[in-house]
Amino acid sequence: MQRVPLASHQLALMDKYWRASNYLSVGQIYLHNNPLLTRPLALDDVKRILLGHWGTTPGQNFIYVHLNRIIKQYDLSMIFISGPGHGGPAVVSQTYLEGSYSEIYPEISQDAAGLQKLFKQFSFPGGIPSHASPECPGSIHEGGELGYSLSHAFGAVFDNPELIAACVIGDGEAETGPLATAWHSNKFLNPVSDGVVLPILHLNGYKIANPTILARIGGEELEQLLRGYGWQPIFVAGSDPKSMHEAMALALDQAVHEIKDIKAKAAQQGAFERPRWPMIVLKSPKGWTGPKTVDGVPIEGTFHSHQVPISSPAAHPEHLPLLEEWLRSYRPEELFDENGRLLEALAELAPKGNRRMGANPHANGGLLLKPLAMPDFKEFACDVPNHGVMGIGDTHVLGPFLRDVVALNPDNFRVFGPDETISNGLVALFDTTQRQWMGANDSNDEHLGPRGRVMEMLSEHQCQGWLEGYLLTGRHGLFNCYEAFIHIIDSMFNQHAKWLKVAGQLPWRPKIASLNYLLASHVWRQDHNGFSHQDPGFIDHVVNKKSSIARVYLPPDANCLLSVMDHCLRSRHYVNVVIAGKHAAPQWLDKEAAAEHCAAGIGIWPWASNLDQAQSADVVMACCGDVPTLETLAAVSILREALPTLKIQVVNVVDLMKLQAEYEHPHGLSDHAFDALFTTDKPVIFAFHAYPSLIHKLTYQRTNHSNIHVHGYHEEGTITTAFDMTVLNKIDRFHLVMDAIDRLPQTGEKGRALKQALTDKLTEHRLYINEFGEDMPEIREWRWSCDNAEQ
Amino acid sequence: MQRVPLASHQLALMDKYWRASNYLSVGQIYLHNNPLLTRPLALDDVKRILLGHWGTTPGQNFIYVHLNRIIKQYDLSMIFISGPGHGGPAVVSQTYLEGSYSEIYPEISQDAAGLQKLFKQFSFPGGIPSHASPECPGSIHEGGELGYSLSHAFGAVFDNPELIAACVIGDGEAETGPLATAWHSNKFLNPVSDGVVLPILHLNGYKIANPTILARIGGEELEQLLRGYGWQPIFVAGSDPKSMHEAMALALDQAVHEIKDIKAKAAQQGAFERPRWPMIVLKSPKGWTGPKTVDGVPIEGTFHSHQVPISSPAAHPEHLPLLEEWLRSYRPEELFDENGRLLEALAELAPKGNRRMGANPHANGGLLLKPLAMPDFKEFACDVPNHGVMGIGDTHVLGPFLRDVVALNPDNFRVFGPDETISNGLVALFDTTQRQWMGANDSNDEHLGPRGRVMEMLSEHQCQGWLEGYLLTGRHGLFNCYEAFIHIIDSMFNQHAKWLKVAGQLPWRPKIASLNYLLASHVWRQDHNGFSHQDPGFIDHVVNKKSSIARVYLPPDANCLLSVMDHCLRSRHYVNVVIAGKHAAPQWLDKEAAAEHCAAGIGIWPWASNLDQAQSADVVMACCGDVPTLETLAAVSILREALPTLKIQVVNVVDLMKLQAEYEHPHGLSDHAFDALFTTDKPVIFAFHAYPSLIHKLTYQRTNHSNIHVHGYHEEGTITTAFDMTVLNKIDRFHLVMDAIDRLPQTGEKGRALKQALTDKLTEHRLYINEFGEDMPEIREWRWSCDNAEQ
């Protein structure tokens, strides 16, 4: 196809549309009243407090207007991702002009009254922030925290072969680590079965008060960098609107044609070669079309245009005419009719219906969400003929279940992880799928292919960002990760949880699938890693977020893991954190018991306890997590053998949030139910997977709280055996028993003797492990053998 | 200078040295006994449990041997940073061979007995992990979590003009975001006053089970990428040892000459142009020199060589001869004498004394640490003629103090931040220094220069990594950041805190300067940001780490901030988190009172309380953080006016860890001291800066815990005024008073009336803010005016 410059009258119309959007953007920052400047600007027309960000806005408006043109011309399905910080005025102006804003918010109507409200709400208390927040139609990316736009864009187009995600990347944002590695996502994109990401690197030269790196390395280095990342950059640079419109239109035509060529060629050939996708580099002045100077300070093209270029006319009366001049420079009277509606000739430039980027359903994923086709998890359960039978590793049991979820949902579910999927015990996935990989291949590679459902890149940021984009556009997924290193995405989790909270309050945004974490390779197994790989604190971080969003599960064995994961994959609009082991470990519950236990989330294990219904316990031995459950049951068996008259109640916690008060978390137990499990006055020895203080934080209001004694991770550990890790942190069976004895004076002489014996045992353990480097046979070979005869 | 290939006999010796180090590396993974293979390998000689990582090791050994050669030849001061995961066997072998290991650990002697211990401790319970952990001489970078090697390398060489940090970067690690952006650090390096980073990108092709991106994009794209990042790559590729030795020696000669040329030219010209520094790309097989195949599976050059290539001979007897063959392929009898000491001719290849990379004092920064020259913080204090006088913004008072710290320590102290230094109120720094910047300049830039002490890149990872490298090599610094976004480096904080814990237990590693965070732009001021910028949870994350490391300060005003920062900058081996405001806010304490209050860390404010020494309080109004202090004092003044007979004790907390039990944190108050502040039975209304549960977590064991009612951040907020943020989260003065009344039935009718009045006030507030977008005048203009007449 031939590249023909657009007719100048069309470019002139586009320039008017751009002026209209810039006018609305300045209006949002400044105007309280007189939205169409139908009378001279008065002090009273200006907001009392001036907030917001101008710098990035005109460039993003420029891009949006040009994208509208190619959407119409080529009938594209496109979404807009606003990566630079504070592009809110642009996306709000654009979705207002195209009409999608007023459809969702009818009170922000397409007339003078609506305009006035549009202006007022911006950066106004209780109004809308200066980012592309969930309230903004067409957005899947807020961008308050920078660096994730390109990852979100890729996540959005995976398995959406008709979709193009136009992703504006700020040159500030481009300095972040997550963005710097996200360019490499093109090695994972299938040109046949996936859609397309069109990055538009927006070089406006400055961050808040600094130049940006990419704007200052020169065109040659920048081109090398982008080509080195595997892209084909098309450069558009300048400040004269007319020539910039021409150049941008040509660049986008070129990009569309290259995209179509790549897609066509790939469809013919299959998708065996990684293409060099086009991208745009747009270099335009920061604060473009804004005031050149204010009070003698240069504004346009400098970092001084970052926020509000003309400060308060109330404090500086000479600023009022400057502001009026700036606003009138867009000639609103040529753009809007007397009622404040965009002129029909201009409105015609926007795409129609769902082609409008503010109305594309891909940017409101809940609209498109299909439930997963789910296999029956019980068919994957392991046999548990007796409590404590040795398993193969809990995540290894989960693997075949996830394999079948993948098989049943070939275009709707992906598994993400930083090259730990096999290490985390999920190798069964590769029975049915591969790792998605468009890079070069080598004969020694395994499980790589151009249509894999497993996404592995050694970047937790990338895994998280891709998954978020995939979920936000209405699909399902799972992130599997080492427990310690999931902290790498703490801040991305924050932003996603915040997005979910706000989106959940918007009736026009239906719920999306939950973000599911499977944290295997956890703190208690450090056989060949060490202290650097130990941190169970992600759940502390998660529970700080809204209780309507945060869910934490610690299944004690494989069948419980299956049940929990089945629940999580069916759930909506949560963040589910599931912590599970991958090493061979004892199994406690058969599939029916597991389903029942997980549905309750917490419960007494009567077979492990030694009291009848009618009896009351002397002590509660509670546990949460696979290793704590093992150590607790081993402690219980020591206690039951040595002190048979002691009445022990064993409580296992799967759903951590059951512990919190019912008015603090929807899963929280009533005080009555809690007391039935933990008593109101008996000692509770609680073995917990993570930092002990989390249990105190969740239970501090409970009746018996002062008797809850939590054992957990204390930042003690090195490279050592699984059991020794528990000893170093005093969560092993021996320390649990010794603690129980300390809390139970009635155990008397027998208790004291037992404690001494266990102290000796710990010494023996230390000597043995120092000598042989493995645990004593009695530890390795211990099996539960004392079910309650009553049960 | 001419590049002359090394004499072949020298290369032959280097090859032997390499073989020796590879032999020791395999020995660490496998051998329990028979360390010199003086007799045939028996099953008993092999460790029972085989752990560790071979894949990256031979390549790192190769690099180290070649670096030793250039260190000697050019008399370089160089440190070695082992970026790829699990390079432990290499750095341990190398430091053992050069003698630095045995100097620190004399029991690991340079003989057969020492070798046996060296082998046994590796990946053995309680031994050393498979990374370059703190226990390893010459290391400043553990690399358990990947991605920070290059940032650490740059941090190490800032202000160390004679130092070269040789930084091995794994091709897996290179996929992480932090590493991907760290390449751009060359824009911040001054070739005159800073040292040099020599990156060695090690392409061994595979991560755990996947190919790496950079190994599969082809040489042309890779060269473009690295040149685009601003480097001059020198490629060395192959697998034949002889030709690889020749190529690597030539490449390193070339790199040294280019470095010397750049440094010489820069010294002549000043440092106005950013040079293109050399770097090495080493492409060698993963698991180089290891077994080609095992059980028919290819090993060398594939991901199967990642961990232990030959699995247990105990379980697979046919593996024993394979292992012996592999070990003997290095011909240990040609390398070590009969006592197990490296032959003299080989030992000669290592540098001497502190030129050995395991002994370079820069890698043990405490050895070089000089105390900061400190100005008297009291000279920067603001006048506080009466309690509650309006200040200019607390960090704005801190700015001149930090400015003088910079001026007094021109080569020993830097301030890091992601372009927020001015935004965070520290503009005074630019009175005396600039932002370090070697990029191109523009006439509109401000405060940029080639020798600035302020390091700004829009990457929190980069700021943190640079600062860590700077501190670990014995200097001082401060990271200023928005509070919400410091979560971006949660996981880097973890790793640094873990490093400090372990290093603190090693007598040969003297303490280093603390890592100081200044978190301004905090959760309570969202005037022009919004929900995405709100997260006060970093301190929750920090207090999970060892109490010997973690310190958290929330100064209530500017003079307290000065006192706290003075303390932090003088402290050693901690992580200090300081949270402070930047907006104009009331000031409470003059410089003497502030110093006294901060030294205590917590205390009653008698002037704000209304009880005599002899009286006991009816209620404690406690506060921690600047905004909570303001709201608490406003609440106290409402209570004192409306209910003058109520006896109120006001407690302010600066040092958060004072709240924890004394046996849990060295700063913790005794129960007696705590009870004196918080009573044993009276209601405590506690206004806290962050998530309320943190206070419960710290105080759950205190006598009066059940009466402590905490107000804090509840994930409620949007873009709004400072006061409205407190209302949305119910930590404002009105909610505090209403809560107090609820806890004080004795306030009776008067209390109920006050509560009703405040409910009405909150309605009025909501109406006012919706109308005008700012707080009611009575809020804006409120000033404390009711000092206790008794004081």
Automatic annotation (TrEMBL), chains A, B:
Native organism: Marinomonas arenicola
Pfam hit, one: XFP_N
Protein name: Probable phosphoketolase
Keywords, sorted A to Z: Lyase, Thiamine pyrophosphate
Keyword Lyase attributed: yes
Residue span(s) of domain Xylulose 5-phosphate/Fructose 6-phosphate phosphoketolase C-terminal: 582-784
Annotated Xylulose 5-phosphate/Fructose 6-phosphate phosphoketolase N-terminal domain residues: 8-367
UniProt xrefs under PROSITE patterns: PHOSPHOKETOLASE_1 (PS60002), PHOSPHOKETOLASE_2 (PS60003)
E.C. numbers: 4.1.2.-
Similarity section: Belongs to the XFP family.
Cofactor(s), by name: thiamine diphosphate
Keyword match Lyase: yes
